[in-house]
Amino acid sequence: DASGGIEIAAYQLSFETYTCQDLYEQDNDFITASMILNGVPQADHSIFPVSDADYVTFTLDKQSEIILTTSGSTPADTELFLYDAGFTQVEYDNDSNGDGFSRIDRFCDVDSLEAGTYYARVSEYNNDEIIYNYQIDLTVTACDDHLDDYEEDNDYTTASTITSGIPQLEHSIVPSYDMDWVTFTLDVPSAITLAKAVEPLRL
Questions:
Q1: pTM over 0.85, yes/no
Q2: Which is deepest, 7, 8, 62, 65, by most CB within 10 Å?
Q3: pLDDT tens digits, residue range 141-192?
């Protein structure tokens, strides 16, 4: 004790260092945003100093659904903002990806994004903690990849007619709560097999 009041027989002192390297700096505003590609994670981001913000940008060629997430090996409190080409905020998320990380998703037939350029901003919630390392991921799926040749067929009043021996191809379940209905008429009592792909459902 420097004051001379208490003796300390023994103590231990430890020292640790952390890297705050961000491979994508400078990326602190819309103009310097780094390009993020579909399916290619951007690892080795950091929020340092505490007031730091990282920007990414991506361009959609057609109407699409997206999933944009932050993640990391240790918990951190990110917040994630999505902006359109005019820098107007489109969506915000704080903690939807677990462990304090963020997730923004926009789905076809629900709230998909139109073709155009978009930006995302990542910062630390409250700007009072360093995030030494995190990753940001983007997944894009064009809405026309989900085309269902039989829509609208979402209830019994709009059910499509299925004919014996003629498969109905190019169905999809998008969004996740979608339902596809079919109808058929039997002229006489019959045994039938109704199958999805190669998995038979016997009635």
A1: no
A2: 65
A3: 998 866 677 777 888 888 888 888 888 777 777 666 778 898 889 888 888 8
In this structure, which amino acid lies at residue 106? R
32's tokens:
């310097």
Report the C-alpha gap between 134 and 42 in whole angstroms.
9
Beta bridge partner(s), residue 60: 116
What is the separation of C-alpha 173 from the centre of its chain, rounded to a whole number of angstroms?
19
Give residue-wise pLDDT tens across range 37-94. Answer: 999 999 989 999 999 999 999 999 999 999 999 999 999 999 999 999 999 999 999 9
Strand order in the sheet with 64-71: 42-47, 131-142, 64-71, 103-106
Q: Which neighbouring-strand residues pair with 160?
A: 182
Could you tell me the two tokens for 139?
A: 């997944």
Give the number of C-alpha atoms closer than 13 A to the C-alpha of residue 115, restricted to the C-beta side: 4
Beta-strand ranges (E) seen in the chain are: 34-35, 42-47, 53-60, 64-71, 78-83, 89-93, 103-106, 116-124, 131-142, 160-161, 182-183, 193-196, 199-202
Cα distances (Å, whole numbers) of residue 156 to 179, 180, 183: 10, 9, 8
The token duo for 130 is 């360093």
